[in-house]
Amino acid sequence: MEDITMRKIFQYIMLAVVTIVMASCTSDIEETTATTGKNNVQLVVGEFPAFGDSQTRTIGTPDEGKTSWAEGDKLLLVIHNTSYGKQYATFTYNGKSWELTSGELVYREGDPAYIPHVYYAPNYKWEAGKLVLKEGKVAGTDEYIEGNAKITGNGETITVSFAEATRKYSRLRIATLPNEQITVDTEYFTPAGSSDMEQKGNYTLTSDENGNAYLYGTFENNSEVTVKYRGATLKTHQFSKETEKAKSYALDATVISANSAEEIKSAIEQKVADGKTTIRLNLAPNAGTDEFMAIREAIKGAAPNDEGTIELTIIGVETIPEEAFYKMSQLKSVKMPNVKEIKKYAFKECQYLTVVEAPSLNKLYSGAFNKCNLLSKLTFGPINYADARYWPIFEDITPNIDLILSDYQKEMIETDDDLYTANNDIDYALSDKHVSRNFLGHEFKSITCIYKFE
C-alpha cells in the first residue's frame, strides 16, 4: 500500500512586509519574533493596509482609522489541492501570532496546494464554502479586503501579504459625538462586499471614543447620505461624483456637547473663530436661561456683524426660554427636534432668520416670532396650546411663509382672552382654517397638514 504522508497547516501565519504610504506620513514597519514549542516562526508584520488619505484628518480628532493588526482580528483563507479540493479556515490573531481557530487545512505531499483567496472581512464568516454575514452584522459597516497568500517553508508556513491589496470601495468617516449611536440614511450606495446597489439604505452605527463612525462602500454620482442623532438631522451631503476606490472621505457631523454654560460658550466661540457657520448643540432636556445666554453671547460676540450666517441645531432641550434669541441677526436657521415649548419673544426681531423647524412643538407663546421679517418656512409639531395674551405670536412678519403642521394637528379654538386650545374632536386638515391658510390668527403663503393649500 502506498505510503502517504499528510501535512497540516497549524497555528502559524507569516505576514510579509506591508509598506503603506500614507498621505502626509509614512509608517515604520515593526518586526516581532515569536517562539513556540513546535517551530521558530519569524513574523514580519507591516502596518495594516490603512486608508492613507489626508482627508481623514480634516475634521475633528485626527484619525487614520485602523492601522495595525489587533488581538482578535481574523483572516479567512481558502486552500485548494487536487486530492482534497477546497478547504476553508479561519485564523485569529492573539496579539503575538496567528492561530487556526476554525476549519482545517490538509494536503498531500507532492500534490501542490495553493491559496486562491485570503480575506480580512470582520463582518463575515465561512459557511458551506461561502462567505456569509455573521449574525447581527450588516454589509458596509466594516472592511472587506482580499490579500495574497502562499505556502512556504516546506509546507509549514503560510505567508500572507496585503501589500498589493486594493480596496474596491471607498470609506466614509463620519465625525460626530463620541460613543454615541447615530443613524445614517443612504441613497444609491453599494456596501463593501456586496455587488448590489441599494437605492435606499439605513444604518445604525456607534461612534468610537474619538467620535468616528464608518461606512465602507461606493456612493454613486448624486448619491445622498444623511446623518441623524436623536431624531435630529446633523448633516446631509450629496456626492457630486462617484466615490473613488481606496479613497477615504470625511463628513462633518460634529456636535458640541458641554456640561456647563461656560463650556458651551467656549466651544461655540471656537467654532465661529474657525469660520464654521453650522453649529450643533447637544443640551440637557432642562437646559435653561444660563445655557441660552451662553449661546447668545458666544455667537453675538464672535460674529457681531454677521447677518443670517449661522445655521443652529439644538438637540435634547425641550423648552426655549423667553427672549432666548432676541435680536440675533446672525441666525439663518434654527432646528430643534426635541423642543416642545417656545416661550415669549424667543425669536423676536431675528430679522435674518428664514427657517425654524420644531417637529415636536406643542406650545407657543406671545410674540415668539415677532418681526422675523425674512421667515420663509416654519415646521411645528401638533400644537395644543398657544398664548397670545401679551402679543400676537406672528405679529409684524411677512405672509410669505410656508407652514408645515403635524398630520395630527387639531383645530385650535380661540377664547376671549387670546388663548388657543386644541379641539381634539376636530382635525385641522381640510378644515375651513386650513383651506384659507390661517393658523393662530395669521395668514400664511401655504399650510401643509397632510394636504397642502396655497
Explain how this protein is built:
It comes from Segatella copri. This is Leucine-rich repeat protein. The chain has 454 residues and is mostly beta strands. The protein has three domains: 6-161, Immunoglobulin-like; 170-252, Sandwich (Immunoglobulin-like); 256-453, Leucine-rich repeat, LRR (right-handed beta-alpha superhelix). Helices cover 7% and strands 42% of the residues. It contains three helices and 39 strands. The strands form nine sheets. The protein has a nine-stranded mixed sheet, covered by helices on one side. It has a seven-stranded mixed sheet with strand order 2-15-14-11-7-8-9, with no helix packed on it. A hairpin with a 2-residue loop joins strand 12 (124-127) and strand 13 (130-133). Helix 1 runs parallel beside helix 2 (289-302). The protein is elongated, with a radius of gyration of 30 Å. The model is unreliable at 1-46 and 54-58 (pLDDT under 50).
Summary, kept brief:
With 454 residues, this protein is mostly beta strands. A nine-stranded mixed β-sheet has the order 23-24-25-27-29-31-33-38-39, covered by helices on one side. The protein has a seven-stranded mixed β-sheet with strand order 2-15-14-11-7-8-9, with no helix packed on it. Strands 16, 17, 18, 19, 20, 21 and 22 form a seven-stranded mixed β-sheet that branches. A hairpin with a 2-residue loop joins strand 12 (124-127) and strand 13 (130-133).
